[in-house]
Structures are given as structure tokens and as C-alpha cells.
Amino acid sequence: MKRIVVFASGNGSNAENLIKFFHGRETGSVILVLSNNPRAKVLERCNALKISAFSFNRTAFLDNGDVLNLLKVSRPDLIVLAGFLWKFPERILNAFPNKVINIHPALLPKYGGKGMYGMYVHEAVVKNKETETGITIHYVNEHYDQGTIIFQAKCEVLPEDSAEDVASKIHALEMEHFPKVVESMLMTNG
Ligand code: GAR
Questions:
Q1: What distance in Å separates the CA atoms of residue 111 and residue 167, rounded to the nearest whole number?
Q2: What residues flank ligand 1, with Cβ below 6 Å?
């Protein structure tokens, strides 16, 4: 059974979807969820789903190696960023080469980079009158949203779509594809 650790900063609908998808499956399991936000809804979701979850501060993440040490003892096969908003430190990336992936709610390289997350992405897509958008699942490297692309899926943006309409189309794509892509990576990756 492959071991998945999820990082999330807020709502956690993707984290919950991953937890439920892998529940009772033999390919993998979400063993731990970590958040930089002690008030994040994802922590409540994990409690209801009986999955261990912890929050951490900048010191533990960036300075004293405590998050890194927790990851090392957790022995993850894959680290999944699902709505995680802090930049991932090189020290952790180097300890888990090719094992950290992220989901982004746009068709990278468009609409990526610092500050481009959640509704900001969809608002920019609508403002620029894009006719399509989508999701990107990619490896994480030391630059925001620039790691190698693993998977993309597209949806239409209609002229009358609001940013909220786009958000719900993206949400549907994420719910459908993210767990399957994670599972296929677990099956091919070492
Ligand atoms: C998701 O749409 C995810 O793609 C996005 O945040 C949302 C989190 O929702 N991630 C980013 O914007 C990263 N730059 P959730 O907390 O309900 O899973």
C-alpha cells in the first residue's frame, strides 16, 4: 500500500476527495494531512474522516526542520499539494525528489505564479475573455507553478460565465481527475 501525505491550506475539498477515493483501495492511502493554517476547514474534514492532521507554523516548515522530520518518519511515496499556498522549501523537495506534486486551477503556464491561486485565477480568466481553462497537475520545483506538467484537462469558458461559474467547472474537473492521476502515479512511480 503506497503512502500519500497531503498538504492543504484552506477548504480541503480536494483533500477530502483524495481521502475518500483511496479509502478501502489497495493502491494507496492518505496517511496524513498537514496544513499551514490552524483554522483551515481541511482539519475538521480530516477529523470527521478519521485521518490524522496537524497544522504547523513557518518555523517548523522553514527553519528547524520539524516538518521535514515528520515527513521522513511518515515515509510518503507521494506528497500531494491540494490547495496549499505556501512556497514549498527546497530542503523538503531535495529530500523527496520527484515525489511532490501540485494541482493548479488553470492551464499552466498560463495563470500561474505567486498570487495566482483560487478565485484570483478564475477572475483573471474571465477578465481576459479566455474561451477555455482547465486544471494542471505538475511536479513541484523551487519556482511557483513551473515544475514539469504531468496532466491537464480543459473546460469551456462561455462569454456569460462568471468567475464563480468557472470555479465550479474547475472543481468538477479536479474531483474527477485528481485522484485518478495520483493513483496512476503511485502505480508507475517506484
Ligand atoms: C483548488 O482549486 C486548487 O486547484 C487551488 O486551490 C483550490 C483548493 O480547493 N490551488 C491553487 O490555486 C494553487 N495555486 P480545496 O481547498 O477545496 O481543495
A1: 14
A2: 8, 10-14, 82-83, 103-105, 117-118, 121, 170, 174
DSSP state of 148: P
Query: What are the start-end ranges of the H helices in 7-161?
Result: 13-22, 41-49, 58, 66-74, 90-95, 118-127
**pLDDT for 36-83, tens place per residue?**
999 999 999 999 999 999 999 999 999 999 999 999 999 999 999 999
Cβ–Cβ under 8 Å, residues 22 and 180: no
Cell numbers given for 171: 472543481
**What CATH fold (topology level) applies to the domain 2-104+137-152+177-188?**
Rossmann fold (3.40.50)
Q: Where are the domains of the chain?
A: 2-104+137-152+177-188
pTM: 0.97
Are 104 and 138 in contact, with CB atoms under 8 Å apart?
A: yes
- Is 23 a catalytic site residue? no
